[in-house]
Design goal:
single chain; alpha+beta; 9 helices
């Protein structure tokens, strides 16, 4: 059982902030906390789904892996994010593998409780549906990107979407080129060539600690190119 009150955390999360206090208390009483070290697997694709996960601290990624070892990053989650909705709502099996990118603390709301709450709380059901619709939209965009855009175009799109207002991407130690390659659906040797091309064209500055956009219009032009 969880060892401290998490109602304040739950009340800030879209899924739960409109729930009656009695339901929040039920979740609080039944929730589990799990911690994982960097590189540990939170759960495996195909294993039984325990429930809905809330990130209390740290970062993790969800991936799909082929039998040959190739992987496609599906989602990255950090503090306050909720994940494994699909596993909860589609028969109780995990549909991705999730691994910790750094030490991470997770709150788990068990699947049976989520399903019971959906039956009695229309607001929770609506949020779940909206979130699942967003996941479908994201997947559709990913398919379009993989089929219609070059690696350089997908990399430009990734940089533009990840950059902050100051045009910087601060790179965590796990934001390697291999990591970025997995996210946009390619391999490290190809992503390295794409990065080199963007640097040579003075579109970005690349270091181990950050990526800085030097030419936003130029990067937007490459991001929009369709093969």
């Amino acid at each position: 059982m969880i060892d401290k009150d998490i109602s304040s955390l739950l009340s800030k999360i879209t899924y739960f902030k409109k729930l009656d206090p009695q339901y929040l208390q039920c979740i609080n009483d039944a929730a589990l906390r799990r911690t994982f070290e960097e590189g540990q697997q939170v759960f495996l694709e195909g294993d039984p789904c325990i429930g809905l996960y809330i990130v209390e601290s740290g970062w993790a990624r969800a991936v799909k892996r082929s039998s040959s070892g190739r992987e496609q990053a599906i989602r990255f989650v950090g503090p306050g994010d909720v994940f494994n909705e699909v596993g909860v709502m589609t028969g109780g099996m995990n549909v991705v593998t999730v691994e910790a990118l750094e030490p991470i603390s997770l709150i788990i709301v068990q699947r049976e409780m989520i399903l019971d709450l959906v039956d009695c709380c229309p607001s929770l059901a609506r949020v779940l549906i909206e979130n699942l619709a967003q996941r479908v939209h994201y997947a559709m965009n990913m398919v379009v990107g993989l089929s219609l855009h070059s690696v350089e175009s997908r990399l430009a799109r990734f940089i533009l979407t990840q950059a902050q207002e100051d045009q910087f991407i601060n790179r965590k130690k796990w934001t390697t080129q291999a990591f970025i390659a997995a996210q946009i659906g390619t391999v490290p040797v190809v992503i390295n060539r794409a990065f080199c091309a963007l640097v040579e064209d003075n579109l970005i500055e690349l270091t181990r600690n950050y990526i800085r956009i030097l030419d936003t219009p130029g990067l937007l032009e490459i991001a929009s190119v369709v093969e």
